[in-house]
Amino acid sequence: MHEVITLQFGQQANYLGTHYWNIQESYFTYAGQEESPVDHDISFRPGIGANGEETYSPRTLLYDLKGAFGTLRRENALYQLQEQTNPAQQNGWSGATIPLQLPAIQPSSYQQALDQGLQPPQLRTDTVRFWSDYNHVYYHPRSILQLNEYELNSALMPFERWDTGEELFASLDREHDLLDRDLRPFLEECDQLQGLQIFTGIDDAWGGFAAKYLERIADDMGKGCRWVVGLQDGTSAPRSRQITKIGNAAQSILALNTSASMDLPLSSAPSKLPAYLNLDANSRWHTAALQAASVESLTLPTRLRMTAESGRATFDEMETTLSKEGNRRIGATALSLGQPEVQDGISMTNGHHDSRMSNGVVHEDDDDAGEQQEKLDMDLFPSFDIAGMSAGQSNTRPYVFGKTRLLRGHLPTEEDQEAELRGRIGEGPRVVTYHTNLLFPSLSSFPPIVRSRRAETYTVKVLVATDTTVASRIRSLENHARRIVGVDEREALCDGLASMAEEYEAGWSDDEDYGED
User: Fold this and answer.
1) Measuring CA to CA, which residue among 339, 374, 361, 384 is closest to residue 478?
2) Do the Cβ atoms of 331 and 264 come closer than 8 Å?
3) Which of 37, 219, 376, 469 has CA atoms 20 to 30 A from the CA of 118?
């Protein structure tokens, strides 16, 4: 069956995950409808609800802090907890107890409308208080994992530093064995696990927590496909906070490289946005939607049915294209969004009449290369910058080692097919293009981040490349780390980052043919 289990660590990860699971739920089809090209059994687990009826719930674990879940409860309309044990009695206390109950958080008007089967009102940034405010799915009680040791947005005990997350994992794992308690029940339900996908922050304490979690998984399970989507907070912050975040990101990138089979760092706020996008960088609901369009589209081939069109693939097949013998595990991601109606080769969404459009992909002239170089509208790979501190990033055109594309609503061009053929015969980078007619759904929970009238679906082009851009960004991270990380950690951290960067610099020269990129 090739099941996929998803792990979600922290606020941004759960905002992204909520968009992701809403989209998966939208693919379900019912009696009298044409069968969905998406195989739901890959991402959803069957079960029996409280009323004895068959249910489906996501194969996922949601970790977050106290106060982060909003109105989401472990007990819901489909699943009722079989035991309601008093925590004091669990610890051996036999005396009288006085329960302390905090005021309940009121469901949003959007959630109330969903519960009543009514048309929900339009969401706004000021009405989305928590990621659960726009959630469409029911989770199994075992999926919801609140860490009570820290509270969301606490000024007294902030969950900010990388080693705080590392220490919290170590403490909880000693007490509970988190893999046995949380992950193993989901693993035992799988017939043939395809892999794990992990959504996590990388520039806060969740980076340390996730890194130690994956280290335990690697020790316990050995090799396997583990795709990490590392989320960087790209919003502006005081300089001291920026420095902390860069130090956290440096430690996360290095630590995850040893236990993840692929790592896709994504910024929440790309430095350059196309004119057709209206993104509120301070709204996690907005930024996670853009990340979801990228992640959900890129991984869509891993969830298609065997009978589906040429979009079907597995995580392992995609890794083979991107990672040379497992040494290049970090991919740079880029994204373009559009509306299905494209007339006479001109996109009616972004209004760029000075660029030629081919199947929704902008091509710009590159005079130095003497050829047309592919560019997507948004570079989602974090820049790892600190205001006022130059890290000396390279501006040279990147050399590509491997690239995976996913096209939604477009067929591959002749150039795509030629590039793939050249890669197969060793005359260029390895390039594989997947395509599907299944467009990206714009649900009522999806924010209006695309200007112009709201469309029901969007075309998408997303690509991930292992190229020399990765080396440039890691070198930037290393240069910052040398100036901000303490002496005790600096040498091992910076040497490790330098060794990683070399994997994306070796094996080519400026005189080589750049191929199609």
Assistant:
1) 384
2) yes
3) 37
Instruction: For residue 267, report the phi and psi dihedrals to the nearest 5 degrees.
Output: -80, 145
Is residue 166 within 8 A of residue 208, CB to CB? The reply is: yes
Mean pLDDT per block of 10 residues along the chain (517 residues) reads 93 98 94 89 86 85 96 68 46 58 80 92 95 95 95 93 97 96 96 97 97 97 95 87 94 95 94 92 96 97 79 90 87 91 39 30 32 72 75 68 92 75 75 92 94 84 94 93 86 94 72 45
Among candidates 108, 149, 152, 156, which has minimal Cα distance to 132? Answer: 108
For residue 51, count CB atoms less than 10 angstroms from its CB and return exposed for 0-12, middle for 13-18, buried for 19 or more: exposed
What SS3 class is residue 153?
A: coil
Q: What residues have CB less than 8 Å from 51, skipping those under 6 apart?
A: none
CA distance 399 to 513: 9
Task: Note whether 41 and 3 are within 8 A (CB).
Answer: yes
DSSP per position, 203-225: SSHHHHHHHHHHHHHHHHH-S--
Tell me how far apart the alpha carbons of residues 153 and 68 are, in angstroms, rounded to a whole number: 9
Strands 346-347 and 342-343: antiparallel
Domains of the chain: 3-81+111-502 (3.40.50.1440)
- Do the beta carbons of residue 253 and residue 98 sit within 8 Å? no
DSSP string, 410-455: -PPPHHHHHHHHHHHTTSS-EEEEEEES-PEE--TTS---B-SSPP
Question: What residue has token string 């069968």?
Answer: 35
Going by C-alpha positions, the residue among 397, 333, 335 that lies closest to residue 360 is 335
CB atoms < 10 A from the CB of 70, how many?
20
- Element at 63 (helix H, strand E): strand 60-66
- Identify the three-state secondary structure at position 285: helix
Q: Which candidate, 384, 330, 247, 385, places its Cα nearest to that of 502? A: 330
Segment 313-359, tens digit of pLDDT: 999 999 999 987 778 999 999 999 988 754 334 333 333 322 222 33
Strand 144-151 to 60-66 pairing: parallel
Cα–Cα dist 262/486, whole Å: 28
Residue 507 token pair: 């094996």
**In the 8-state DSSP scheme, what is residue 271?**
S
Show the 3-state SS of 447-472.
CCCECCCCCCEEEEEEEEEEEHHHHH
Phi and psi torsions of 86, nearest 5°? -70, 125
- Name, in order, each residue with C-beta under 8 angstroms of 307's C-beta and a sequence gap of 6 or more: none
